[in-house]
Every structure is written in C-alpha cells, then in structure tokens.
Amino acid sequence: MKFTLFSESGGRRYLLSAPIRRHADIGLLVVMFLGFLASPAGRITDLTFLGAILLILLWYRFRSLSTEKLFSYGTLQQESVQRANFGRKLRGCPDTLVGWRLSSVRITDPKVLAESGLAVHKILVPGEPSEEVNGVVFEVTLAELKAADGYETAAYKRVRVTLHSGTQAWAYVSAA
User: Fold this and answer.
1) Under DSSP, is residue 135 helix (H, G, I), strand (E, B) or coil?
2) Where are the alpha helices (DSSP H) in the chain?
3) Residue 5 above 80 pLDDT?
C-alpha cells in the first residue's frame, strides 16, 4: 500500500509518495491528515507541507535509532521465513563471525517446520579462533527482534557478538 501527498501552492508543485509498511507509517499519515484539516480551506499550505516533510524525516531518524543488527547464518535469510515473521523481506549485508562454527539441530516445532521447510537447521557453537561462519547482517526493529525470538526454538539463545567488520549484532547460538 502507498500513500501520496500532492500540493500545489504559490506556483510550486510538490509530490510525496512513500510505501506504508508498518503501523507507525499509518500514525504518520494520521498526523499529516490532521495538519491538512487544520490548514485554511482544507488546503495543504507550504507550511503544512514542510511540516509533514519534517515529521517524516524525524520519524525515519527515530526509526533508525530504534533498530538492532541481527546476524543470520541460516533460515532467517529465507524470504518465506522473513515474510512470515516480519511481514517484509529484509535487506542485509554480508559479514563473518569469527571463533564460531556451524553444527545442526533437529527442529520439531510445527510452525518453524512449516515456515522454513527444513527439519534440520544450522546452529552456532563455539569454535576455534581460526573458524568462521559467513552470514548476513540485517537491520531490524525491536518488534522484529522479538518476533525472531519467537521463531527460534528453545535450542537457541540470542547473544551479542562482534563480527569481523567490527559490527555489534545479535546472533542465535546453541542454548546448550
């Protein structure tokens, strides 16, 4: 779903269009609509329009402050798993975790089995300093991080790690 804001004022035309991805986006639209109603004759004035742009910029800044990095080396990289748990496809950057290695764990949770399509998942266990695990770092909201906690089974625990790039991120490792 997208929203579009159009204004023609003082011989200038403005067009602002953005996707609606989360409930916070809808909240922003409500604020913008209230500004529209409060303006003279129900028109979007330059001031109202600039105020809306400022709100959008502040919202994006606030959203970036309320995100976390999540290192994924397994099923959280699957688009189907991302859509099922986060409602969107995540974008990420490749990175490496040093001092860990991959093992495997059998999954019995029906929901996780259905979402991933796999009965055996990868799991991080401590390794030698020379061992590395390649993966992807995603930027997720706090709500999405909680959703990832709900997706991972009791075999996993979430810990803070430092990646090869120096990035601090959360990763799911063996709870054993």
Assistant:
1) strand
2) 23-38, 46-65, 79-86, 110-116, 142-151
3) no
Query: Does 174 have pLDDT greater than 80?
Result: yes
What backbone torsions phi and psi does residue 18 show, to the nearest 5 degrees? -150, 150
Of the candidates 100, 98, 99, 81, which has an alpha carbon nearest to the alpha carbon of residue 138? 81
Strand-pair partners of 98: 132
**Cβ within 8 Å of residue 111, ≥6 positions away:** none
Task: Say how far apart CA 17 and CA 4 lie, in whole Å.
Answer: 4
Give me the residue label for tokens 């979402």. Answer: 115
> Token digits for 78?
């699957």
Taking the C-alpha atoms of residue 173 and residue 100, their distance in angstroms, rounded to an integer, is 9
Please, are residues 126 and 153 in contact by the beta-carbon 8 Å criterion?
A: no
Going from the N-terminus, what domains does the chain have, and what CATH number goes with each?
Answer: 2-65 (no CATH), 67-174 (3.10.490.10)
Express the helix, strand and coil content of the chain in percent, nearest 5 each. 40, 40, 25
pTM of the model: 0.65
At 73 the three-state DSSP class reads: coil
In the 8-state DSSP scheme, what is residue 9? E
Q: What span, in angstroms and rounded, lies between the C-alpha atoms of 26 and 107?
A: 37
